[in-house]
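User: DUF5690 family protein, Paludisphaera mucosa:
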Amino acid sequence: MNRPASRSVSPFMRGRPRLAASAWAVVAAFGAYFCTYAFRKPWTAAVFADSTVWGVAEKSVLVVAQVLGYMLAKFVGIRVIAEVSPGARTLGIVLLIASAELSLVLFAAAPSPIHVAGLFLNGLSLGMVFGLILGFLEGRRHTEALTAGLCASFIMADGACKSVGAWLLGRGLSERWMPAAAGLLFLGPACLFAWMLSKVPSPDPEDLEHRSERTPMDGADRAAMLRRHFVGIAAIVAAYLLVTVARGVRADFAPEIWKALGSPAAPATFSNSEALVALGVLVANGLSVLIVDNRRAFFASIAVGLAGCALIVAALVGLRGGWVGSFPFMVMLGLGLYLPYVAIHTTMFERLIAMTRERGNLGFLMYVADAAGYLAYAALVLFRGWLPVAGDPLPFFVATWWSMGVLASLGLGVAWIYFASRSAGLVPAEVGA
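Assistant: Predicted structure for DUF5690 family protein:
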């Protein structure tokens, strides 16, 4: 199989050892998406106490606005990310991040309630960055390790950027101007890491032999892939949807959750808890690169997702019984949510394409899943009468995590049964073995 001309190796990286090229790629991807989070999450460290918009708690309105923008970007990305040419990815990342910073300035400077539009535009700007970065990493023998590094960035950045936001608030910045200031701190590094991504070499012939060539997808390609594997893909997407909702609740309302647990979080608490979560998820999902056979790796990733669901239940049982304190609970819950979330990012869809030899790319399947997940989260916060951030919100959060953990495990179980019944005939045994 010939390498597409559009994916030629950058002269900057030509001739460099594979390990050095992989290290370059994972540093570039980690850094680029870590910086992206600095334009998306620091504002959630603010609580906007006793402040309302349209008679509703302001933080709930702002969460909804950003989620709606992010959700819309995911639906647009189903087509854009599937069809984008490799050469356009770097410029796209830089333009989207710059747009996100401008939207934060709008959030700070515009009067209420117009400022809400700033966070909507912020979500709209950032929703396609992950797919553009992912395109540099897929279709390689080490894709799981590279993508695990990328996913570790958004786990660690979620806590670290809240810490940055809390630090800026402590320095006297207002809740409205703090997000733009946080983004400005990371604008230069974001451009540097985007440049690094542009120098990542294309998959080599051995990568293509083991994982299949990844190509842009037109509408017919997208429809054909979904039609051939609809039940299995739908089951994975359903599980991902549920985990996305539960993860979103934990991420967007972390200060309120810590307070409800009786341990108001200091700035460092966000970073410390997420660093432990990132380490566990990175190890659990990154090790799948050692499984050469694509079928075995695919089912191993489902097993990792099921283990995460079991950990969610264990954390909730421990909290109810008083056996688990607030910090261990948040770490266990984070691990339980991120294990299936990251397994789908790193391995399930990647190995599904490899074992079926489908014409297509990982970004398309991820954006189908992301669009469904953020649509569900937006529906939750809209149709439940917004999310509760006053009083004691913990009972609602716990009920959400219980239902999502149990139902997500059912979705992954259906996917296992469906693909197990079909996998023997999907591809010749020697492919990917």
